Amino acid sequence: MRAELRIAGLEEIDAFAARLAAVLRPGDVIILTGDLGAGKTTFTQFLAGHLGVRGRVSSPTFVIAREHAPAGAGPGLVHVDAYRLDDSAEFADLDLGADLAESVTVIEWGHGIAEELSAERLEITLVRAFEEDGAGTAGPDSTDTGPGDPAPAAPIAPEPLELDLAEEDESRLLVLESTGPGWDARLALVAEQPGEPGPGTETR
């Protein structure tokens, strides 16, 4: 199933992350795709805040994977940056399976190497508004590369995230691609724009 969702800025990205967090369950896998600066790490910070996990969420480019324990009864978060991994074999060497059942796993730069982690998954491609003409757009079939998103040094709630508004607060197109029947109903829920049930969202 596929949906497209237009996001006007950080407030709507946060709202989308809240809707997604509300339907996530242990074992879910999310693959994030997008060019440098598209907002993959920023989105993960918002999602982590709504999941209520412990610890500071930042880009794990050099440590590859970072685990965040749940602060309450919800799932934990495993945050992976696969940019420095060459192929699915190197990704498999991370041995994330042990943590998969208890946590939500979010993988930045995971397209093409992380799909075998789960038969049911959600891929989110973040496209900045000025990239929608195709120049520099890192869609699911893109070969664009670059370092992991620079992440502002900010803790998860209760303190607010210290985001670079000049760089991050701009429109996005979110392309949502679900694999597996377990995501079909949930994707329809998270892709709906409050107050605008039809325009801006395309499912197929």
TrEMBL record:
Keywords attached to this entry: ATP-binding, Cytoplasm, Magnesium, Metal-binding, Nucleotide-binding, tRNA processing
Listed InterPro entries: P-loop_NTPase, T6A_TsaE
Region (Disordered): 132-161
Superkingdom: Bacteria
Coiled-coil intervals, chain numbering: none
Biased composition range(s): Pro residues: 149-158
Pfam family, one: TsaE
SUPFAM superfamilies given in the database record: P-loop containing nucleoside triphosphate hydrolases
Intracellular or extracellular location(s): Cytoplasm
Main localization of the protein described in the UniProt heading: cytoplasm
PANTHER family registered for this protein in UniProt: TRNA THREONYLCARBAMOYLADENOSINE BIOSYNTHESIS PROTEIN TSAE
Function field: Required for the formation of a threonylcarbamoyl group on adenosine at position 37 (t(6)A37) in tRNAs that read codons beginning with adenine. Is involved in the transfer of the threonylcarbamoyl moiety of threonylcarbamoyl-AMP (TC-AMP) to the N6 group of A37, together with TsaD and TsaB. TsaE seems to play an indirect role in the t(6)A biosynthesis pathway, possibly in regulating the core enzymatic function of TsaD.
Similarity comment text for this entry: Belongs to the TsaE family.
Protein name: tRNA threonylcarbamoyladenosine biosynthesis protein TsaE
Upper lineage: Bacteria, Bacillati, Actinomycetota, Actinomycetes, Micrococcales
